[in-house]
């Protein structure tokens, strides 16, 4: 799967049932040694697409449960580190 296939999909937290953001309005943490994605960094944007502040959240790539046609469902493992 290519990044462009993921762009525009909503990130949904399955535990809280809330929208985290849209992939494409996010940054990726990539491990420079392996070239693999470690996590998705979600910026805090307003409804107009303007950045609200420095608030960010991270979703570990391993926490992605399902990638659907319109959404990416994540189940953060709260028992890890």
UniProtKB/TrEMBL annotation:
It comes from the Bacteria. This is YlmC/YmxH family sporulation protein. Residues 1-77 form the PRC-barrel domain. It comes from Aquisalibacillus elongatus. NCBIfam families: spore_YlmC_YmxH. InterPro entries: PRC-brl_dom (IPR027275), PRC_barrel-like_sf (IPR011033), Spore_YlmC/YmxH (IPR014238).
């Amino acid at each position: 799967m290519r990044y462009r296939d993921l762009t525009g999909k909503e990130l949904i937290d399955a535990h809280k049932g809330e929208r985290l953001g849209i992939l494409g309005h996010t940054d990726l943490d990539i491990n420079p040694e392996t070239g693999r994605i470690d996590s998705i960094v979600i910026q805090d944007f307003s409804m107009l697409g303007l950045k609200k502040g420095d608030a960010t959240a991270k979703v570990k790539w391993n926490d992605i449960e399902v990638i659907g046609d319109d959404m990416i469902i994540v189940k953060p493992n709260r028992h890890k580190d």
